[in-house]
Amino acid sequence: MNRLIEQFHRRLVVSCQAYPGEPMRSPDTMRRVALAAVRGGAAGIRAQGLEDITAIRNAVDVPLIGLWKDGDDEVFITPTLDHAVAVARAGADIVALDGTSRPRPDGLTLAETIAAVHEQTGALVMADCSTLDEGITAANVGADLVSTTLAGYTAYTTKGDGPDLGLVARLAAAVDVPVVAEGRIHTPAYAAEAVQAGAWAVVVGTAITHPTTITGWFASALVEATAADAET
Q1: May I ask which residue range the UniProt record assigns to the signal sequence (predicted)?
Q2: CATH says 3-231 is which class?
Q3: What is the pTM of this model?
Q4: CA distance 125 to 142
C-alpha cells in the first residue's frame, strides 16, 4: 500500500470547495478553511481549482486530493489529461477525475488518462465513479483509489437523501484498491457507517465547509416546524 494513502486509512478527508459567485469563493478563504479542517482532525483535504490547490498545498502538510471542475459537458471533474497534469503540478498528491463510463472531452480513454498522469507527474489518481461497474473498470485500468463521488449525479443513477453506502460496500468487496466514500455524507453517523461498510476513507464537504447549505438546513427546519405548529 502506498504510504501516502495509508495516512488517511479509516479517517476523514475534508472537501474545501466553494461555488462560483459565493462569498467564500477565494483561494485564501479555502486555504483558511483547510487549515481549520486539519486543526479539527482532517487527515486529508480535497480541493478544486489550481489557485486553491496551490494555496492549500503551501498551508497544510496532509495528503491533498486535487481536481479541476471545468466545462459544461457531462464530464467536468478534471475532464482532460491537460487538466489532470495541471492539477498535479499545482501541488496535488492525488488527482481526482471523472471515472465514469462517459466519453472524455479530449477523446482519451480513462486508462490512457490514468497512465499518462502516472508517467508525466508521478501523482496518484482517484477515479470518481457512480456505479459498481465503473469502479471495477477504473481499478482494473490503473486507478489508485476509486470513490463514490458521482453516485446519484449521473443520468443513469438515482440520488438518495443520504450516501450510497450499498455502493461503498459492493465496491469494497469487488476491487483491490482503496474505496473512498463521498457524496451526501451529512452526519458523523453516516461517516462511521461508511467506514463500517468498507470505505478506506470518508470525504465530507458540504456538511463541514458550505455554510450556505448548512444554514439552509436549519432555516428550513424552523419553517417546517412553524408550519406544523400553525396546523395544530
Answers
A1: none
A2: alpha beta
A3: 0.97
A4: 8
